[in-house]
Write a structure and sequence with these properties.
- The complex is a heterodimer of chains A (about 425) and B (about 475).
- Chain A has 12 helices and 16 strands.
- With about 425 residues, chain A is α+β, with helices and mostly antiparallel strands.
- Chain A has 2 domains: about 230 residues, P-loop containing nucleotide triphosphate hydrolases (Rossmann fold), CATH 3.40.50; about 70 residues.
- Chain B is globular and about 80 Å long.
- Chain B has 20 helices and 12 strands.
- Chain B has an 8-stranded mixed beta sheet, with helices on both faces. In chain B, strands 2-1-4-5 form a 4-stranded antiparallel beta sheet, with helices on both faces.
- Chain B folds into 2 domains: about 240 residues, Rossmann fold (3-Layer(aba) Sandwich); about 160 residues, no CATH class.
- Chains A and B meet through helix 6 and helix 7 of A and helix 10, helix 15, helix 16, helix 17 and helix 18 of B.
């Protein structure tokens, strides 16, 4: 680990248990994060973007030590405090308190994040008092300083949260995180419930405070324009996997991973010459409970290759749909031997021939070999390659298209 | 203003589908009277996408609810103004319902009741002609009923006539199927539509084929869908035909009792009208580009993802081919990739079905993607309205330019975002004069004292003293 890293995560996986029935049989798991390796450098702002369900918030919880069951290693290198947490050696209560003094979080919804029965000064002072940093008087002094730093007045100290607007509440939430002099602040969608004009105020405040207090930020958002505005580096998550990580400017000017490309091209720009284009819509239902094999993005990927992780079930579904549309077949009689081999039985040899033509066409179904046996067609798929993080230019990409080893093995031209 | 209803009706002949004049909506709350909409003037042309932008509390959703007669009963009330749709002023119809609610004598009550029945009849004429998509698709679908029941309910209630016509037309075509099969082989979908139009008119089967022809699929797939539409129809007995024909002239819609037992295939349904409605709901889901529409029909709302639910909402909204579709922040709860698809769908519905869309959002990027014309609302008024092409390059009102500057940009990176100082005013205690003056950079003395009036600048309308000739000359 490099000297200037504040947090290093190695191979962190988190899965949540889903109990389907009260009898606790057939428990299934939701893979929130699968094997994340990440370092956060001192003094940078790292943006974490992704769709809902991609594991952004789980990442924040893992860093703050709020999860009970997880795998991997997280190293914390705060000033005067270095800690390591692994799945076998979870942090003790005292160690967690150390981390919580030095790192803090701002939540999305400023309405539910503040206790409505407490005065603002008590809300801000609570972490200070709770960590026994000083007495009440000292805490209130600090609260006064911070309230002015976040652009409110001392009068606001004796308000209740109900008397403040959304933007003012979010300022209070930011002030509260600063009271113990943290080194790392995690923002979990801090502006997504605010209006545009208020969002600009809060973003400016957040960036100003970073310079004043010499902070490190992890900024979780689904708004790519905001991510681009605030961050130095950006990490793109999809179904608990890192897809691409690199410097913000280069990721936005030339995205490498197909998912990053899709994400960036989906954001409508407030420009008069912006036009929407028809996109080849490849929709697939994906869930973190049974994530796709190989690359998790392959069912939606517009440039997926034959080696991206297709299995018999997916391909049979594709053929079924196509044969209904093109040949008018109501149902397809397919028999799945294993993940890579399956047989399609047609009504007669004539139909089998037609189906074979359909399957062979432009290798649309990524089939390695198909063979006609009477009125049956035996199909075999390519063996899939699992993608891994590979360096490309100044960043890391999780896609086999940029993997030299894969390219050499299959001689793929781009 | 000296505009009369007569003038506006005249206007509607000239391509205006909806005109709102001086609309005022108040909310009577425990903490006082809130003026949510204060004198709103808006004209919507046929076939356009009008975008309404504004921050929360600017009155954009309340305007939509007022058009739909969905204001919360008891608190929200249309105080004055008119909403003219299809030459009828809806505002007095809507507000007359409130007057009945008061404590009145028995005889008066009888008269009022009759008046209400008149009102109901007038409302019945409007039903299904304006539809709305809400922000949160989960809370707009009934969690207890499957998607098919919810689609069929809406179709039968608003458009039973169409289903009966469809059934009769197709029954007739089945009688001359050999002729139709030849047509299907030889002619393109457009020619087929002409043929159906000549033989059976533009209701019924024509409308169904119209939906099929507007799906984004290949020509051969469209033909398969047309063939399926015929194959799924029930062959009627002469008695049933007579019954349906007798029902057709005064079909006013019927209540469909949703149940969850029914399953596909469609062949299992006995009632010809329900069967047509079921088939049509399948076609609607195909029209909105739903993957696996057959499975979706028999799913409960919770089994679908956010984007799919929002598509079901769009399908429900276009089911009765409305004149106006109001979309109130339809993509706020969705991911960017799904948002792109829903926006594209709404735009293609507007282009293909010629539906007028009123699109409400606070996201300026979304606005750029869909809107032809953009209206900016602030504190219950439209402060600027004009074509989208001018909006982003040359905003007029100081609030509009402030909004545009405060959005983080993609291509240029500024260290500090511009921000409009202060916050949106409380609509219970609005500032004097122009409601924006406490936050305005270019505030003048007159702004604090009197309300600005509409000024026309080229094709645009702006409500700001900066553009008023009198003030300009006066200040010189």
């Amino acid at each position: 680990m490099a000297a200037d890293d504040i947090i290093t995560m190695t191979n962190v996986s988190v899965r949540y248990e889903l109990r389907n029935s009260s009898l606790k049989r057939n428990t299934s798991y939701l893979n929130a994060l699968s094997g994340i390796t990440l370092n956060v450098r001192k003094g940078e702002t790292l943006a974490v973007v992704g769709e809902s369900g991609s594991g952004k918030s789980t990442l924040a919880m893992a860093i703050l030590g709020l999860l009970k069951h997880w795998k991997g290693t997280i190293d914390y290198r705060f000033r005067e405090c270095g800690l390591t947490s692994t799945e076998d050696d979870n942090l003790k209560r005292g160690e967690l308190l150390e981390i919580w003094q030095r790192s803090s979080i701002v939540f999305q919804d400023p309405y539910s994040a503040l206790d409505s029965k407490k005065l603002i000064k008590d809300i801000i002072a609570e972490p200070f008092v709770g960590h026994r940093k000083g007495n009440r008087k000292r805490a209130e002094e600090r609260a006064g300083q911070l309230v002015e730093q976040v652009g409110l007045t001392l009068d606001h100290l004796v308000y209740y949260p109900g008397q403040l607007s959304g933007g003012q509440r979010q300022r209070i939430a930011v002030a509260r995180t600063l009271i113990n002099g943290p080194e790392l602040i995690i923002f979990d969608e801090p502006t997504s419930s605010l209006d545009v004009s208020i969002q600009a105020q809060i973003l400016n405040l957040i960036l100003d405070l970073k310079e004043q207090h010499n902070l490190t930020y992890i900024f979780i958002t689904h708004n790519l324009a905001v991510a681009k505005h605030v961050s130095d580096r950006i990490m793109v998550l999809y179904l608990g996997n890192v897809m691409e990580i690199g410097m913000t400017d280069s990721v936005f000017s030339e995205p490498l991973h197909p998912y990053t490309k899709l994400l960036i091209s989906s954001v409508p720009l407030p420009k008069s010459d912006y036009e929407m284009k028809q996109r080849e819509s490849r929709e697939a239902e994906v869930s973190s409970i049974a994530p796709p094999k190989g690359c998790v993005f392959h069912p939606r990927c517009p440039v997926a290759t034959s080696h991206c992780g297709w299995d018999s079930k997916e391909i049979i579904q594709l053929i079924e749909r196509e044969s209904y549309l093109r040949l008018g077949l109501e149902s397809l009689n397919a028999d799945m031997q294993d993940e890579l081999n399956f047989t399609i039985s047609a009504a007669d040899e004539d139909m089998a021939g037609k189906l074979l033509d359909l399957i062979g066409e432009k290798n649309k179904f990524r089939i390695a070999s198909s063979e006609l046996r009477g009125s049956k067609i035996a199909c075999r798929l390519y063996v899939s390659w699992s993608p891994r993080m590979v360096p490309k230019d100044d960043r890391m990409v999780n896609c086999i298209l940029y993997d030299d080893e894969f390219k050499n093995a299959h001689d793929i031209q781009k | 203003m000296s505009v009369t209803i007569g003038d506006i009706v005249q206007d509607q002949e000239n391509n205006k589908v909806l005109s709102i004049k001086d609309l005022e909506v108040d909310f009577f709350t425990a903490r006082g009277r809130a003026r949510a909409v204060r004198g709103l003037n808006l004209e919507v042309s046929r076939g356009e996408i009008l975008g309404i932008v504004g921050e929360s509390g600017s009155g954009k959703s309340v305007t939509a609810l007022a058009i739909m007669d969905l204001l919360p009963p008891g608190t929200g009330r249309i105080m004055s103004g008119s909403i003219i749709f299809d030459r009828n002023d809806l505002a007095p119809i809507y507000s007359s319902k409130y007057r009945v609610a008061g404590r009145i004598g028995r005889e008066k009550l009888r008269i009022r009741r009759m008046a209400v029945r008149g009102v109901e009849k007038k409302l019945a004429e409007q039903k299904g002609r304006i539809s709305m998509i809400f922000q949160d698709p989960l809370s707009s679908l009934d969690p207890l009923y499957k998607i098919d029941s919810q689609l069929i309910e809406s179709i039968l209630y608003n458009n039973e006539e169409f289903m009966i016509g469809k059934s009769l037309d197709k029954n007739d075509i089945l009688g001359r199927m050999s002729e139709f099969t030849n047509l299907l082989k030889e002619k393109s979908t457009e020619e087929l539509m002409d043929w159906i139009n000549q033989n059976y008119g533009d209701g019924g089967f024509y409308k169904e084929v119209f939906f099929i022809s507007n799906m984004s699929i290949s020509e051969s797939e469209k033909k398969i869908k047309i063939r399926r539409a015929l194959a799924c129809t029930k062959l009627l007995t002469p008695a049933e035909t007579r019954k349906l024909k007798a029902k057709l002239p005064d079909a006013t819609g019927r209540f469909f009792k949703p149940n969850n037992r029914r399953r596909l295939p469609i062949q299992g349904i006995r009632d010809p009208i329900v069967r047509e409605a079921m088939l049509f709901s399948l076609e609607l889901l195909e029209f909105v580009g739903m993957p696996n529409p057959e499975n979706v029909l028999t799913s409960y709302p919770h089994e679908l993802s956010g984007g799919m639910k929002q598509r079901v909402m769009v399908a429900l909204a276009v089911a009765n081919s409305p004149d106006i579709l109001i979309a109130d922040e339809p993509t706020t709860a969705l991911d960017v990739t799904t948002q792109y698809q829903v926006l594209y769908l709404l735009k293609s519905i507007n282009r293909k079905l010629k539906t007028t869309v009123i699109f409400i959002t606070h996201d300026l990027g979304v606005m750029a993607a869909v809107a032809d014309r953009i209206a900016v609302m602030y504190a219950g008024r439209i402060v600027e309205i004009g074509p989208a092409r001018h909006f982003f390059d040359d905003p007029l009102h100081p609030y509009t330019s402030g909004l545009l500057k405060s959005v983080p940009q993609y291509d240029e990176r500024v260290r500090k975002l511009y921000n409009i100082p202060g916050q949106v005013p409380d609509i219970r205690k609005l500032p004097s004069g122009c409601a924006f003056h406490p936050r305005c950079e270019r505030v003048m003395d007159i702004c604090k004292e009197s309300d600005p009036v509409d000024e026309n600048v080229n094709e645009r309308r702006v409500q700001c003293w900066l553009y008023s000739d009198g003030v300009k000359h006066g200040s010189r």
